[in-house]
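INFO batch 0412 | record 1 of 1 | parsing
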Amino acid sequence: MLYDATVIGLGPSGTVAAHRAAARGLRVLGIDPAGPNAPGTIGVWADQIPGWFPDAGIAAEFRPWVIADGVRRRLRSRYVVLAPKWEKRLGGFPVLRGSAPLSKRLPAAHTFISVPESTLSARQLAHGFIITTDREPDAVLMDFSPVPGFGDAPSTFSYRIPLGGGHWLIEETILATTDPPDELLPLLERKCLARMAMLGITGRIAGTEIVDFPLGPGVVPRDRRGGRVHIGGAAGWMHPATGYSVGEVLAATDGMLDRVLAGRRPRPAAWHLNHFLQRRGLAVLLRLSPAQTRRFFSVVLALGEDDLRAYLTGSDPVRTAGVMLRIFLRVAKKAPGTALAVLRAFPRAIAWGARD
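INFO prediction complete | emitting tokens
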């Protein structure tokens, strides 16, 4: 065979897989019409950054704040923003700028597919502004504070992070929705501007950022024979209730390659159970009203930091189940009506099949 491995789709997961396979001495071919590519702004936890990641691929590092119900607290965990075009630094393999049929066996012992064959209708949406300012705001991971004149619908949070070089991203986000993006994105733009005015954030607007992506594949593919393995977002590596994915890719790709090259499944059974729980969490979240969503996340953001991180990005099903139970019990104490809505949604969430 011409190659030991081909990688179809060179987004973050495909590019990292191709780079790490090539670092092992494998002959790797990456296939993507755009070449290696990634979204403009990506944030991960600092402890998800592996030792091989280039220092120049990091634009900023800081300890973020979370804000809900008027309560502010600063996390002890450090958060990292990746530098623009960080994926271009991960080479070691030739790139074919084209497309490959997903159903066709390619001339390689292993084929890694990072392109989803179907996607969920649930999406994460955001509209943000990249600004330069002399008066830097606090770095904030999530701020669910209300903005006068916008009510509860839809429930959104503010994401305010440094990008390095004096630039900041100020973004208004809807965590998960099935409503049409063309109706919600203009609202997010107006709300982002209103929040900036409310907080006194001023500066020159250097650009905008639009976020609009599905929260995972409609079907998480089963392992296939013939050396074909789905990875990254195409395999459900994205957290379906929060949208976090690249940190998982950076932290877990080497382990995935170890397993595949040893003839084992790419992810252990515990990972699949954890994804099942997270997927049901998304199903519940989509059935809460905007006001209930805001009350729900006021409880989530008040969790101990380890539990908060387990909810946002965790991969241990026992820990995930325990955190979900603690969230429900605290919601029941603080907002019984929201807890009742969760209970009513839960049977439908459990019955939610492979597709949404």
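INFO post-check: The longest strand covers residues 167-177.
INFO record closed
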